[in-house]
Amino acid sequence: MDTIDVRTIVPRDRHPLIFQTFDALADGAGFELVNDHDPKPLYYQFLHERAGQFTWQYLEQGPTTWRVAIHRQSQDNPINSGAQDHD
C-alpha cells in the first residue's frame, strides 16, 4: 500500500492531491495517509463527495502523527459507506 505523507505539502494542495490519488485507485486498492493533525475535515469531505466509495481506518491517532488507511470500495461489494474504525 502506498503512503502519502502530506505533512510537507502546502495545506491548500493536500485535499486535491488526496482525491486525485483516491480517484486513480482500482477497486479494493488503498493508500495510507500521514498527517500532523486529525484529518476529520477530509473524512467529511469524502462522505460528501465520495459517499459509498471508500473505507476509512485510523491506524494511529496522535498526538503528533495521524495515520489513516483509505481504500476504494469495490463497486460489486459495497459495505458501510465511509466506515470508520475508532478506538
What secondary-structure arrangement, pairings included, does this model have?
Elements: E1 2-5, H1 11-23, E2 30-35, H2 40-49, E3 54-61, E4 66-72, E5 83-85
Parallel strand pairs: 1-2, 3-5
Antiparallel strand pairs: 2-4, 3-4
Overview of this protein structure:
It is globular, with a radius of gyration of 12 Å. The protein has helices at 11-23, 40-49; strands at residues 2-5, 30-35, 54-61, 66-72, 83-85. A five-stranded mixed β-sheet has the order 1-2-4-3-5, with helices on one face. The model has no long low-confidence stretch (mean pLDDT 91). It contains two helices and five strands; from the N terminus they run βαβαβββ. By secondary structure, the chain is α/β, with parallel strands linked by helices. The protein has a domain at 16-74.
Short descriptors:
single chain; 87 residues; alpha/beta; five-stranded mixed sheet; globular
Main sheet: strands, sense, barrel: 5 strands, mixed
Mean pLDDT across residues: 91
| Helical residues, percent | 25-40%
Strand content: 25-35%
Strand order of the largest sheet: 1-2-4-3-5
Radius of gyration: 12 Å
What is the helix tally?
2
Coarse structural class = alpha/beta
What overall geometry do the principal axes of the alpha carbons give?
globular
Instruction: Give me the count of strands.
Output: 5
Intertermini distance: 23 Å
Q: SSE string, helix = H, strand = E?
A: EHEHEEE
Low-pLDDT segments, ≥5 res: none
